[in-house]
């Protein structure tokens, strides 16, 4: 009896109390790469992962308030959706089989003018959050109108998000001109600062919808606030042809001259890139959001992902 009590006391002294222990048949960590751990456990305390170790060691080291056993599952970190317009889940299926500018100008922008409101954005974002969580996505980078409404839905869903502060030159239901977009976006950021799962980005729509003056302001604000800049760029060949006519240069070169190309830039789509532009993105520490479903829907093409990765560009999926 004495020996049994001694062992129990000794074992209790050697164990650590935690909130949650998740035992999984397989665990795939981010690092080291290409690693699959079998019969391992994840220890969680105060909302943070504190250990990843074999199940047998976990049983000796931890006493958990709650245990979850995933004996037929793969456990891996939450996925990141690097670019989306979450509230547009409510516009899914509108105007299929049309090129980008026809889709935007003849269908999407008129529909948004009729329907977009804070309530629309909240409900559409909440639907998108449910769909993303079901697919294993726990963090996303959003770009849409009424960012405070989107943030409210994100908080309800308990997700992480980078809320884009949109910027266009023309009026919408959200704002009247570029100055109004920036003022409202920065006010939304100030209102929501301190929310632990929310971060923010300056989100100019595209080179063909944003002026040089506005891009210069974005460059200044990026330097002051150190915010990421997701931006649709080089999505279609016609975008590049139009830029050559209007500005005498391709969109990325124009953005470089305006101070946008740098470590904060997330080049969204980046389908039509030449070797010089891939080197430009790599040399300036830019990221690319590869959006294959969107590009296939609109027939825009496929980003040169292999070449971007070979050059050292950080590529994520949107």
Summarize the structure.
With 318 residues, the protein is α/β, with parallel strands linked by helices. The chain contains twelve helices and twelve strands.
Per DSSP, the total helix count is 12
Along the chain, the helix and strand elements come as HEEEHEEHHEHEHEHEHHEHEHHE
Q: Choose one word for the global shape.
A: globular
Contiguous low-pLDDT stretches (5 residues minimum) are none
What do the pLDDT scores average to? Answer: 94
Physical arrangement of strands within the biggest beta sheet: 3-2-1-4
Largest sheet: 4 strands, mixed
* Intertermini distance: 62 Å
Strand content: 25-35%
Summarize the helices and strands and which ones pair or pack.
Blueprint: H1 2-14, E1 16-27, E2 37-45, E3 48-54, H2 55-61, E4 62-75, E5 79-84, H3 100-115, H4 118-134, E6 137-142, H5 147-157, E7 160-167, H6 178-192, E8 198-204, H7 212-225, E9 229-233, H8 237-247, H9 251-257, E10 265-269, H10 275-283, E11 287-290, H11 292-297, H12 305-310, E12 314-317
Parallel strand pairs: 1-4, 5-6, 6-7, 7-8, 9-10, 10-11, 11-12
Antiparallel strand pairs: 1-2, 2-3
């Amino acid at each position: 009896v004495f020996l049994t009590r001694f062992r129990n006391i000794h074992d209790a002294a050697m164990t650590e109390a935690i909130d949650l222990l998740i035992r999984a048949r397989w665990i795939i960590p981010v690092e080291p790469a290409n690693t699959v751990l079998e019969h391992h456990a994840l220890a969680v305390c105060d909302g943070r992962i504190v250990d990843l170790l074999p199940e047998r060691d976990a049983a000796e080291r931890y006493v958990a308030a709650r245990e979850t056993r995933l004996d037929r599952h793969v456990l891996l970190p939450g996925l990141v959706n690097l670019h989306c317009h979450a509230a547009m889940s409510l516009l899914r299926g509108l105007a299929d089989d049309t090129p980008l500018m026809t889709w935007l100008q003849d269908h999407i922008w008129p529909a948004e003018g009729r329907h977009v409101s804070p309530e629309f954005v909240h409900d559409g974002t909440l639907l998108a959050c449910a769909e993303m969580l079901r697919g294993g996505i726990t963090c996303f980078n959003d770009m849409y109108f009424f960012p405070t409404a989107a943030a409210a839905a994100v908080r309800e869903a308990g997700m992480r998000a980078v809320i884009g502060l949109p910027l266009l030159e023309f009026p919408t239901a959200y704002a009247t001109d570029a100055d109004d977009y920036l003022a409202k976006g920065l006010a939304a950021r100030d209102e929501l600062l301190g929310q632990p799962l929310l971060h923010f980005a300056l989100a100019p729509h595209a080179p063909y919808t944003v002026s040089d003056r506005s891009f210069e302001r974005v460059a200044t604000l990026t330097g002051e606030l150190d915010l990421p800049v997701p931006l649709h760029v080089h999505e279609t060949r016609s975008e590049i042809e139009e830029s050559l006519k209007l500005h005498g240069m391709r969109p990325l070169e124009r953005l470089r001259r305006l101070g946008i190309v740098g470590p904060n830039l997330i080049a969204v789509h980046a389908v039509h890139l030449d070797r010089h532009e891939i080197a430009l993105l790599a040399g300036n520490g830019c990221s690319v959001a590869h959006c294959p479903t969107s590009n296939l829907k609109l027939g825009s093409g496929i980003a040169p992902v292999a070449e971007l990765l070979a050059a050292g560009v950080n590529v994520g999926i949107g």
